[in-house]
Amino acid sequence: MALGVHLNGSIPLPSSEDVFSRIPAALPGRLKRLPDGEPEIRQLFVFFQLAVFNAYPEIQKQYDAETNVIPPKSLPTKADLEALTKTLAGADKQLATTYDDHALSSYQKFVKARAEGKIPPGVKFQVSLATPLNVVTMISEGYQSTVEPFYEAALIRALDNIQDTIPAADLAIQWDVPSEFAMLEGEAAQWPHFTPWFGPDVKGEIIERLVRLVDSVREDVECGLHLCYGDHRHEHFIQPKDAGLLVEVANAVRKGVKRTINWIHLPVPKDRLDVAYYEPLKHLDVPAGTDLHLGLVHYDDLEGTRKRTACAKNVLDAKNVRFGVATECGMGRTPPEQLESILEISKAVSEPYAS
């Protein structure tokens, strides 16, 4: 059986209080970390971050009713970009992501729930942060290179506030990494939303960004990676042929960082009951101190989940690596009525951590 369960972030429950009271009870002994479920405006991943740019409507991408990108009528001039840079650099115009506001509010509820015995001692409060690329993809063509460093700085300010306020022993930070894989898979032709604004070494620049983000988490705070192929309309933007690119990125980031990566999450498509998808996992670097979680739990599919678990186990047993289970992505877009099945299956295919 798998060892433990990981939750990526969003959970289809109405409040963080509901998450803190219901989820630990449903997964006894199986959680090292617990997110707040990203309720309300955060259920749709990064779309709430558009509010960061409310003062700059002209730099936001426009979409049609089918969420296709509407090409801009014109690109910004050099003067436009210089003016935007000057504005964003102004001390009174600093961007604010509000990730820290949400995290600090939920942490107080986490502490209360733990004191009431709803959350076991030792379970950390997990804060999932989308990487800047996920947000800057919503910025209009021509403006992205100018906006990205200012947005990244704002996100790091929020991260620092979280780390300054929540005790390190209680905190775990997860970087959510989906848009990067759309770019790496060359999906810009089908999904112009993901067109890179940097290059030509797109992979190298993505790895450089991820290394920088991981190293921005303090060494005494746990940090993990959620590598993902998206969940738009409950589908990936592309079905990966195998786990090879996921493994390549995970290994490159781990090699580049100065700190420990405490966990890595990789998705597993529902229909992959063949060993070929899992074969690249034999090349995944999973050192001591790093947990591996595979997103192979799917709603109302206990038998399939067991088969996917067995496929992964066939590869990872040879490396003497145990892994935990998870869903492929966050569950913010999952119908609430499916949650019970997901929790029951997650419990059925996993063992609790040793107490």
Number of domain units: 1
Q: What would the CATH topology be?
A: TIM Barrel
**What best-fitting shape do the alpha-carbon axes yield?**
globular
Q: Count the strands?
A: 11
Figure out the total of helices.
Answer: 11
The SSE string, one letter per element, is EHEEEHHEHHEHHEHEHEHEHE
Percent of residues in helices:
25-40%
Low-confidence stretches: none
Instruction: Assess the beta-strand content as a share of residues.
Output: 5-15%
Widest sheet, order of strands: 2-5-6-7-8-9-10
| Sheet with the most strands, sense and barrel status | 7 strands, parallel
Annotated CATH architecture? Alpha-Beta Barrel
**Structural class, from secondary structure content?**
alpha/beta
Q: Radius of gyration from the CA trace?
A: 20 Å
Mean pLDDT: 93
CATH class: Alpha Beta
Question: Distance between the terminal alpha carbons, to the nearest Å?
Answer: 17 Å
Describe the overall structure:
The protein has helices at residues 16-26, 78-89, 99-115, 132-136, 144-165, 179-184, 202-215, 244-256, 275-278, 302-316, 339-348, and strands at 2-3, 33-35, 62-63, 69-70, 124-130, 171-177, 222-227, 263-267, 291-295, 323-325, 350-351. By secondary structure, the chain is an alpha/beta fold. The chain has a single domain, classed as TIM Barrel (Alpha-Beta Barrel). It has a seven-stranded parallel β-sheet with strand order 2-5-6-7-8-9-10. A two-stranded parallel ribbon has the order 1-11. The chain is globular and about 60 Å long. The two termini are 17 Å apart.
